[in-house]
Amino acid sequence: MATTNLVWVGTTLSSVYLLKLTLLSDFSINCPTYYIASSLSVSGQKVWKEVFNAGSQKHGGTAPFFTTDPDAAGVNTTLANIMKDRLLSFAVHNDPNAQAWSGVDALIWPTYGETGEVMETNDTQITIVMDTEYDKSERCKFFSEHGEVVQN
Questions:
Q1: What's the chain's average pLDDT?
Q2: For 31-46, what is each residue's pLDDT tens digit?
Q3: How far is CA 142 from the centre of its chain?
Q4: Which residue, 94, 110, 92, is CA-closest to 48?
Q5: I need a surface site. Which of 12, 20, 78, 102 has the fewest CB within 10 A?
Q6: CA distances from 95 to 52, 64, 110, 133 (A)
Q7: Helix 31-42 vs helix 138-145: angle between axes, to the nearest 10 degrees?
Q8: What Rg, from alpha-carbon coordinates, does the chain have?
């Protein structure tokens, strides 16, 4: 049986724990979302992809970003309005860009496709980045091409 060497390209982690965390994140979240978004996009389905890098990064970590209560600690009202507008617009129109109720100007969220454009939201800004910065990576390519090795 041939051995496969995997190098986590660009990984600057100094501890084994963080390296394992990156491996698990890629395997269970980052790469599957890339595979799903790519497959749906190729089949003609409209797909919008976002990387949310704000707050605690825990499950449900987006909840504080949906409040516009000025008394809430650390609230970013602009971001909260944009996120609420996009969520409601998607629910009503199946398009996160179709309607904004808050009146806040927001960057148009491009559909994911051949260009690989992804919305990135962090604590201070919303930008468009290429998917190669997150999911469409050599690491995901490894999982895709070596399924028999990964399963064992």
A1: 79
A2: 888 888 888 888 889 9
A3: 20
A4: 110
A5: 12
A6: 18, 23, 10, 24
A7: 80
A8: 18
Q: Which two tokens stand for residue 52?
A: 């949310």
| All residues at 6 or more sequence positions from 120 whose CB lies less than 8 Å from its CB, including other chains | 50, 51, 53, 126, 127, 128, 129, 133
Distance CA 44, CA 14 (A): 42
pLDDT digits (tens, 9 = 90+) for 49-86: 988 877 766 667 777 777 777 777 777 888 888 989 99
* Domain edges within the chain: 16-151
The answer to whether the CB of 96 falls within 8 A of the CB of 89 is: yes
Per residue in 50-60, is it b (16+ CB within 10 Å) or e — as a string?
A: bbeebbeeeee
